[in-house]
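Summary for the funding panel

The consortium committed to producing paired sequence-structure records for every protein in the target list. Below we show the first two records in order, beginning with the earlier of the two.
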Amino acid sequence: MEIPDSMRAMVLRAPGEPLQLMEVPMPHPGPEQVLVRIHACALCRTDLHIMDGELPAPKLPLIPGHQIVGTVVGLGSQVPQFALGERIGIPWLGYTDGTCRYCRRGQENLCDHPLFTGYTVDGGYAEYTVADQRFCFRLPALYEHAEAAPLLCAGLIGYRTYRLAGPHVECLGIYGFGAAAHIVAQIAIHDGKRVYAFSRPGDVKVQEFARSLGAVWAGDSNRTPPEELDAALIFAPVGPLIVEALRATAKGGTIVCGGIHMSDIPTFPYRLLWEERMIRSVANLTREDGDRLLQIAPKVPIRTEVQLFPLEQVNEALSCLREGQIQGAAVLNISGE
C-alpha cells in the first residue's frame, strides 16, 4: 500500500490539557523497527496519569496510547521477525537496553534505561506508529482488532499481577473491577479460583458484570467478603484499598498492586500486616508475560468486553474512563476495520 506523508493523531501538548487532533508527519522506521498501520488502540488509566501529570517527564508533545493492534506496512533494514501484512500488537514496554543488571538477570521490566510506548515514545492514538520489532507480539486469530487491544496492557499487566499473587491461592479478591480485572477474573476462574470482586461503593452495574463473568461474590470495596482471601489484586489507584484488602486477607496472604500510580497509603496497625502477610507492587511487563498470556487467552477463552470510540472522540472516552463509566475496556476504532 502507498504510505502517506502525514497522518492524523491525538496529541498531548502539556499535562493538564485535553488532547488535540492534529495532522503530523508520518514516522519512519529505524533499522530494527516496524511501521504499523493502526486498527485499534485501547485506553488505559495510565494514559490519564500521564495526561494529569502524575507520571513525570513524558515526551512532549506526545501521542499517547500503548495497547495497539495494527498491520505491518513498513520494515527497517534489520527486521527478520515480521513480514509486511502481518498483524501485531504493541504493548507498554517499548525498549530495554539488554545490558543493565536487571536485564541481565531476566528482569527486563525493571530495566534502568527503558522506553515506554505512549509515554517516552509516541504511541497509538494515531493512524500509524513505529515500534521496536523485539517488543511486538503476534496476536491470536480468535480476536478481532478491538477485542485484542485490551490484552496488550490490561491483560499483560493484569496477568503479571495475578501470577505474583502466588501459586497456592484458592480465594482471590480483585479490587477495582475495570479492564484488567475483567480479564484476570476469567483466567482465575478458569484456573479454579473463587473470585471475589470489589467495586466502588454502590456500583451495582459493575458488580453484576463481575458476577456474569463467574465471580462468586461482588460487593462494595469497603465491605468484608464472606470468607478470608488468600490474595488480593488491586487495580484501582486508591491507596486506602490496601488497608481494606489487608483486613480481608488470611494469614500468609499477598496484596499485589497492579497500577503504575496510586494515591498515598494511610497508616494502619501492624496487626493487619502480621502473620506473614505481604504487600508488593508490579512494574511494567516482560516479553515472557506477553508470550504466556497470548498462549493462554484462546484456551480460556478470554472474552474482552469493549466499548468503541472513534479517534477524534478520545477525550470523551478518557472522561468516561475517569468517571468509571466504562464496562470492560474503552477502545479507539482507528482504521474502521
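The next record, for a separate protein in the list, is shown here:
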Amino acid sequence: MTAQPQKIQTQAETSLMQQFAFLDLEPSRQAAADRLNESGLPHRRVEEWKYTDLRALLKDVPQLASAQSVVPTTAGQPLVPADFVLAVVDGIPQDLANAGANASDAAKEAVSLEIGLGDAKGFHEKPNANVDFNMALASSGYVIQVRKSAVTPIIFIDHIVSKADAITAACRHSILVESGAQAILVERFSGPEGSAYVASSGLSVIVEDGAKLTQARVVAEGDQSSHLATIGARIGTDAIYEPFVMTLGSHLVRTDVQITFDGEQSHLGIRGATLVKGKQHTDMTLDVDHASPNCTSIEQFKSVIADEAKAVFQGKIMVKQIAQKTDAKMMSQGLLLSENGEFLNKPELEIFADDVVCGHGATCGDIDEEMLFYLLSRGIPHPVAEIMMVQAFVAEAIEDTEQPEIIEAFEAILADWLASR
C-alpha cells in the first residue's frame, strides 16, 4: 500500500481557510480563494517566493475587520497638498462627503469617486498568490476615474489600521486615467506599533492613450505588522506611468508589481527606496511585460539595510517578439550599514525580439571609506557624514520623480528614518 502524503496547514493557512468558509464571495473572489485553498501559501520552493517564504514568515491571518467594527475617521495630514483626501480605516473606505473639500471646480469635474470593488484589469492573467490573497479578502475600495482636464488633480489615500488588536485589513482600489488626462496619486500606509496585524492592499491601474499617472506611496506600517501589496497596471499608446514606492515599516513587506504595455510609444519609470533595520524583511517583486513595440522603461531601486534586516529585489523584464525597438533599463543597488544585513537580488531579462536595447545592473556594498574619509577630513562628525552619504545614495531615486512636493515629502521621511536609526 502506498501512503498518500498529508498536507499540513500552518496556523496562517488554517485561519485563512476558515475565514473563506464564512465569507459570501462572488465568483471572481471565490475563484481566488479556491486557488489559495488548493496551493496554500507560497513557500521557498516556488521560484518567485524563494527569498520570501510566506508560509514560514506569515504566522497568522487574523480576523477580517468588518464595517460594523470600524470607527469612522478622517485622513491625517496629507503628504502633499491634495485636491481629494480619502481615508481607508482597517481596510474599510470612509465616506466621500468631504473628500474633495480642497478641490477646485475644474478638479471636481475631472475626477469621479465611488466606493466599491472595481475591476482588476490591470493585473496579469496568470495566477499570483499575493494577488489572489487580496482579491479573495478585499470586499471594497475606491473606484477612481480621471477625465481630461486643464488641471492635474492630486488624490491622497490614507490607509490607517486603528486597532491595537491584531486584525486583517484588506482593500482594493482601481484607477482609470482616461485618454489625454493626467493625475497624481499619493498613498500612505500606517498602523500601531506592537500589533501583529496584516494589511493587504491591491491597486488596479489603467492609463489610457495619451494619459499620464504619477504615483507615490510610502509603507510605514507598525513594527510587528505584515504588509502584502499588489499593483497591476496597463499602459496604453503614447502614455506615461511613473510610480515610486518607499518602504520603511512592517516586520514583513511583500510588494508585487505587474505592468503591461498595451500600446506603442509609451514610457514606464518605476522607482523605489527600501529602508530596513532591526529584523525587518522586505521584498519588491517586479514583472514588466513589454507587449508592444517602441516603448521605454526605467526601473531603479535603492535599498538601505541596517542591523540584521533583509531586503529582496526580484525584477523581471519580458520583451515579446512583437515588441521591437524596446528600450529597457533596470538597476538595483543595495547599501549595507552593518555586517549582518542581507541584500538579495535577482534581475531577469527574457527577450524574444531582436531589435532592442535592454540591460540590467545590480550592485551591493557598504559605505565608501574614501568618501567617508573626505567628509571626516572636513570636520564633519562621523554620524552626520554617514547620514549625508545615505541621503545622497537614496536621493537619486527620489529626485527622479520630478514632482517637487513629493521629493520634499519623501526626503523628510528619509531624514526622520536616519535620525531614528
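Regarding this second record: Helices lie at 11-22, 27-39, 54-57, 105-110, 129-137, 369-377, 382-399, 404-420. The longest strand covers residues 168-177.
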